[in-house]
Write a sequence for this structure.
């Protein structure tokens, strides 16, 4: 158990975090594209991609909410050792990790304020599958249209309707990730 | 390379900047506050751009820095060597080869691609600042989408000069929502902001703001129906490469009123001269 806690982080934190961040940034800047992201091995059921996102973005300054099946003692201690992120409930979190069903309801998360829309949560959604089909996306970052297998199109339409407020999403599946910022129009 | 962490900044600082960049990309044109660090160069020399570049850079990148279009001015040379020393990153002066381009006050003439990131150095990120000095008020104006004051400013330009005299840092509206300062690029460059395949990131070190334009974002320069936006430049061809449609610098060459107009983008001009193009002042 202890090796599992201590292992699974970046072996070269500065270099691997830089590469991982580029994947996250490209995904967020181009909604609908799928990137690979490697270097992390968090305890199950968290995916390597979700682990790498946490290592790249979370630290003692970012309250994190572990939803449902992701809220295990193995994951808690792994996050405590590798990031030091304080664990909180959904209403106080800056990042949240879990499956789509476990993360519900979306109304619990901070969506920012009209003067500071950046003070909103980013949800890391563990997906059973991730591919470029399903919902049609348009908006900033997308040349014409893009497709992404979203868990629930209506929820993202409601989120987008709050623009410039709203939540941002990172979808992870094994070592791949995609993202959906609030600016994207889903249909 | 063991004297510093990769790309100079400590990891916690980079995470903080990276989170700000992601929020900036999610709300295009909105200025995200960030805890800007003191850098080993004075404010006004690109500390915001340097911090953003440090946060996005990887070892595989080809890094280019331009200062008013030029690769060989003090600011560009010193920032390039800063990252050569602290990140061991490869540098280039060729726009086409670069993957990360840090710029002060220009967008390269050559079209950017999807594989590139353009990082702007921004002195005053708030487009409304000279109209309303209070941050609390400008924030409220952005939140209420209250941009009438900016149009009054452009109108006053017209009433005083007969045309919109603002020639750089020309305000733009992003995706029909936020009015944004494109940094002091000449308004000639404004059309390139819109529908650009590259990611555009803006860093203001002293003012502690980061904002961003994802690729293919719609960016519109503010104007009036009867006074439409015009991307103006000096009405001359380049003296060295003869090109008609690039942005030009006016250079005084003697004390008898002699002057020449040359491309501000040195890489573009050099490449054209190497291809055999010659202007009237070419040696």
């Amino acid at each position: 158990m202890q090796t599992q806690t201590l292992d699974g982080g970046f072996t070269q934190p500065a270099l691997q975090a830089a590469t991982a961040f580029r994947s996250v940034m490209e995904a967020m800047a181009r909604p609908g594209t799928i990137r690979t992201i490697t270097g992390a091995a968090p305890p199950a059921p968290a995916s390597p991609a979700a682990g790498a996102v946490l290592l790249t973005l979370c630290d003692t300054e970012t309250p994190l909410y572990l939803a449902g099946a992701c809220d295990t003692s193995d994951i808690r201690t792994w996050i405590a050792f590798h990031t030091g992120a304080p664990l909180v409930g959904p209403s106080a979190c800056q990042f949240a990790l879990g499956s789509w069903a476990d993360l519900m309801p979306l109304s619990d998360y901070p969506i920012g304020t009209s003067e500071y829309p950046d003070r909103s949560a980013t949800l890391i959604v563990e997906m059973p599958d991730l591919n470029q089909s399903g919902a049609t996306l348009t908006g900033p970052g997308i040349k014409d249209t893009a497709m992404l297998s979203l868990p629930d199109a209506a929820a993202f339409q409601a989120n987008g309707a709050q623009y410039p407020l709203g939540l941002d999403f990172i979808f992870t599946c094994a070592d791949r990730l995609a993202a959906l910022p609030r600016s994207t129009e889903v249909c | 390379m063991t004297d510093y962490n990769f790309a100079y900044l400590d990891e916690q600082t980079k995470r903080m900047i990276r989170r700000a960049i992601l929020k900036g990309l999610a709300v295009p044109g909105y200025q995200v506050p960030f805890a800007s660090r003191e850098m080993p160069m004075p404010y006004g020399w690109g500390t915001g751009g340097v911090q953003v570049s440090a946060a996005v850079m990887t070892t595989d990148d080809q890094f280019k820095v331009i200062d008013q279009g030029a690769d060989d001015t003090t600011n560009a040379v010193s920032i390039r060597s800063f990252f050569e020393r602290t990140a061991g990153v490869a540098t280039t002066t060729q726009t086409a080869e670069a993957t990360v381009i840090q710029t002060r006050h220009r967008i390269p003439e050559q079209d950017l691609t999807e594989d590139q990131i353009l990082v702007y150095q921004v002195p005053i990120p708030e487009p409304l600042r000279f109209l309303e000095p209070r941050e609390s008020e400008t924030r409220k104006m952005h939140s209420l989408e209250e941009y009438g004051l900016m149009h009054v400013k452009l109108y006053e330009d017209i009433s005083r000069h007969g045309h919109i005299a603002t020639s750089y840092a020309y305000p733009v509206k992003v995706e029909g929502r936020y009015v944004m300062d494109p940094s002091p690029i000449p308004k000639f460059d404004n059309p390139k902001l819109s529908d650009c395949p590259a990611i555009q990131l803006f860093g203001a070190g002293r003012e502690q703001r980061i904002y961003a334009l994802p690729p293919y974002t719609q960016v519109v320069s503010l104007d009036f129906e009867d006074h439409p936006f015009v991307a103006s430049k000096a009405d001359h061809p380049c003296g060295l490469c003869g090109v008609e449609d690039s942005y030009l610098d006016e250079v005084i060459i003697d004390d008898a009123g002699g002057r020449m107009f040359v491309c501000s983008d040195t890489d573009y001009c050099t490449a054209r001269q190497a291809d055999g193009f010659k202007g009237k002042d070419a040696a």
User: Anything to note?
Assistant: The interface with chain A takes residues 5-7, 11-12, 14-16, 18-28, 30, 32-33, 55-60, 139-140, 142-144, 175, 177-178, 197, 199, 212-218 of chain B (CB under 8 Å). Residues 238 and 262 of chain B are 5 Å apart (CA to CA).
